[in-house]
Amino acid sequence: MDGPPGNDFCSICHGNFHIPHQANCSHWYCGNCILQVWNHGSALQPCKCPLCRRQITLLVPSQASSQQVNDPEASEILKRIEGYNRFFGSHSTGLSQRVQDLPFLLRRLFRELMDPQRSLPFVIKARVYLALISTAIYVLSPVDIIPEALFGILGLLDDFIIALIFFLHVGTLYRAILVRRYGGSST
Question: Which of 4, 35, 86, 137 suits 16 as a labelling partner, its CA being 20 to 30 A distant?
């Protein structure tokens, strides 16, 4: 699904989506509506999601929105969204924000890896697969930092930490791709 659900509507204007964008919290909004929410707040801070109140640090347009570049109104909104992403998308966020963004990022990354119509750079795919294989080998191998045989269930802690590091690494990597793709160049 590269667009908002068919029976859903923008929770800001309560109308059908116009140039839909997905926030890093996975909620969908009209591009212009979410920009108006940001304009009513501080211009130096990312706006908060009207539904879950999380900071929106990345707005990803739907595939249909990205293809509307010939429409002057859509083009203007897409340029403003690029500016928003350029300004807030690459800012360092805390660990809790990164963990909260994982479902959004990993779901989009998995769809992109499985869809032959989409293309991630080979180097990125290689890094994701290498990290996945390394994590799987560590988790499945009997050699552990905290051995399960000695510490029981507590011994799974190192496996959990390695898996979390893998997910955070892959999420950060894919977020950088999305910021570059939808934040434009910073020149």
Answer: 86
pTM metric for this prediction: 0.84
Query: φ, ψ for residue 175 (rounded to 5)?
Result: -60, -40
How far apart are alpha carbons 153 and 26 in whole angstroms? 33
Where does residue 119 rank: exposed (0-12), middle (13-18), buried (19+ CB within 10 A)? exposed
What is the predicted pLDDT for the residue at 168? 94
Long-range contacts of 98-103 (CB under 8 A, 24+ apart): 98/168, 98/171, 98/172, 99/168, 100/25, 100/54, 101/24, 101/25, 101/57, 101/58, 101/171, 101/175, 102/167, 102/168, 102/171, 103/26
* 99 CB neighbour count, 10 Å cutoff: 13
What does the pLDDT look like over 65-106, one tens digit per residue?
888 878 899 999 999 999 999 999 877 678 888 899 999 999
Q: How far is C-alpha 111 from the geometric centre of its chain's CA atoms?
A: 12
pLDDT for the residue 44: 86
